[in-house]
Write a structure and sequence with these properties.
The protein has 14 helices and 11 strands. The chain is of the alpha/beta class. The chain has 2 domains: about 220 residues, Aldolase class I (TIM Barrel), CATH 3.20.20; about 70 residues, no CATH class. Flavin mononucleotide binds next to strand 3, strand 9 and helix 9. The site of flavin mononucleotide (FMN) has 30 residues, from strand 3, strand 9 and helix 9.
């Protein structure tokens, strides 16, 4: 796989970022990805500040390669988490779910490379204006929280490429080396992969959650809660509950306020819990180690490249 502006900026070998994921990406997953030459990312969204600190310390002792922290801005812990990130000298932070203006300057003053996740061209431009170093442009196929506009990765990437100068990774629906090649061909400088790593051996998600990914087909997920905070989840019991509550006009915030993502992803409660994963789950048929995933991605990339150039 070729080096790009993004691999150079982040100091990684392959243009592959593992998406920061609540209840999924602790130090085991992040350090394994970094050790394979990608960018491992700790998902701070499900960690209280003290726990985040523990994961950062463990990540450092498990890899000497670059890793990042994903920081959802709307979290009530985000300010305290920033202080820990700076104290622990984390080199890269990927912010999401909020305005890039909020923390970029503070992080950059501390010498940190800043990425931000966006679902649209408009927000990508705002990131550039705010001084963000790189963008993760995420299409609506992606698992987890997402944009409202249903813009697919295939349509988003070339439009982001036209609109901004800074490096960017494509995200949403990527799980295969041929897709990595396609994203680079469309102008992205790398990719961010979520669902595939959520189903890896090193993911801290519950086995029931991983089994649901393996069982899923391409139409097993849907984007819900568009009026509140859009999120792509599996069509399980909780999905039905959301549809009923929306129909009746019930309070959706109350429905969510029961730690549903933790129940579903971390505790494996398939009835009450929310299972965040993406449309590409249909392609994932086995739970592999991070090392096996990287081997596959590289082989698929090579094969597709040979096919395209006709070697
Ligand atoms: C279980 C799960 C949790 C996620 N949590 C977060 C998060 O805390 N912050 C964030 O920026 N993105 C989060 N995401 C999005 C991923 O980082 C990534 O961008 C996305 O999964 C890419 O699309 P894919 O699932 O099709 O590979 C999450 C995704 C999943 C599947």
């Amino acid at each position: 796989m070729k080096s790009t502006r993004l691999t150079k900026l982040l100091g990684i070998k392959y243009p592959i970022i593992q998406g920061g994921m609540v209840w999924v990406s602790g130090y085991k997953l992040a350090s394994s990805v970094s050790n394979e030459g990608g960018l491992g990312v700790l998902g701070a969204g499900s960690m209280k500040p003290e726990l985040l600190k523990k994961h950062i310390v463990k990540c450092k002792s498990n890899t000497n390669k670059p890793f990042a922290v994903n920081l959802p801005i709307f979290s009530s812990y985000s300010q305290a988490q920033i202080e820990i990130i700076i104290e622990e000298k984390v080199a890269i932070v990927i912010t999401s779910a909020g305005s890039p203006k909020k923390y970029t300057q503070r992080l950059k003053e501390a010498g940190i490379i800043v990425g931000h996740v966006v679902p649209s061209v408009l927000l990508a431009k705002k990131c550039e204006d705010a001084g963000v170093d790189f963008i993760v442009a995420e299409g609506f196929e992606a698992g987890g929280h997402n944009g409202r506009d249903e813009t697919t990765t295939l349509c988003l990437i070339p439009q982001i490429k036209e609109a901004i100068q800074i490096p960017f990774a494509a995200a949403g629906g990527i799980a295969n080396g041929s897709q990595v090649l396609a994203c680079l061909a469309m102008g992205a400088d790398g990719v961010q992969i979520g669902t595939k790593f959520a189903c890896s051996k090193e993911s801290s998600a519950h086995e029931n959650y991983k089994d649901e990914i393996i069982k899923a087909n391409e139409s097993h997920t849907a984007l819900v809660l568009k009026s509140l905070m859009p999120v792509r989840i599996a069509k399980t019991n909780f999905y039905d509950e959301i549809l009923i509550a929306e129909k009746k006009g019930n309070d959706l915030a109350e429905l969510l306020g029961k730690g549903r993502a933790k129940q579903g992803i971390f505790e494996g409660n398939l009835k009450q819990g929310e299972l965040e994963f993406g449309q590409i789950s249909g392609l994932i048929k086995v739970c592999l180690s991070v090392q096996e995933i990287f081997y596959q991605l590289k082989e698929e990339y090579k094969k597709s490249l040979n096919k395209v150039v006709g070697v």
